[in-house]
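Reply to dn_fold:

You asked what the input looked like. This is it:
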Amino acid sequence: MRFATWNVNSVKARLPRLLDWLAGTAPDVLCLQETKVPADGFPAAEVQALGYDVAAYGQGRWNGVAVLSRVGLDDVRLGFPGEPGYPDPEARAISATCAGIRFTSIYVPNGRTPDDPHYTYKLAWLAALRDALAADVAAGPTVAAGDFNVAPTDDDVWDPRLFADSTHVTPPERAALAAVRALGLRDIVGRPLKGDRPFTYWDYRAGMFHQNKGMRIDLVYATEDVAGAVRDAVIDREARKGKGPSDHAPIVVDLDWTAPGPAA
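and this is what came back:
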């Protein structure tokens, strides 16, 4: 089984690239973030033509998440219990069960700056996410994947000195992320296809990608049963190249996994 996560940064702007990538990479499940379309504006027909069922949650120009699956798409949940709003709930999480694994596609709030109300919202959102994922983890195989907008350690930032007074690296953010992982989730780190650091995001400006001045903020957290089945995990840096790419690269994970059969 193969699954992936990708902050696509506008599914409409990136649709030809997404369709080519789906055809070439062929994940069984794909978690998408920052789709930037309402649910009824998601290009479902084009994706379904490749054999995928679609669950999408979106609000137009901002946010937006989706799960695409060709191995079943059951028990879809938009958002999660206790999710805070800013000032209203945003389309930042969607969950579905695919091949016996509970997948949640996650787009954590950016936080903007540490003195902005959006930063307080980010911390509250992560705390509520932890509580919601606790129930999923207790119930069975779970994957929480997406753009967490937090670099877990200084090694996950090309130059941590440049981020000392900004979001993504502050101790409260990292503590909130660590609390999510402490539910019993393992960090599945993709192999970088170039360089020695597994970055997943590079700013569009100033040739950051070509200089490999990036961050690891796209994460895959999995329960031990899923993590123990991982054969390989790769950051698909090629998908960040070319004309009009997303500023994020997908993470692709291969599992030795067979969906459980129905209960006797």
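The mean pLDDT is 95.
Hope that clears it up.
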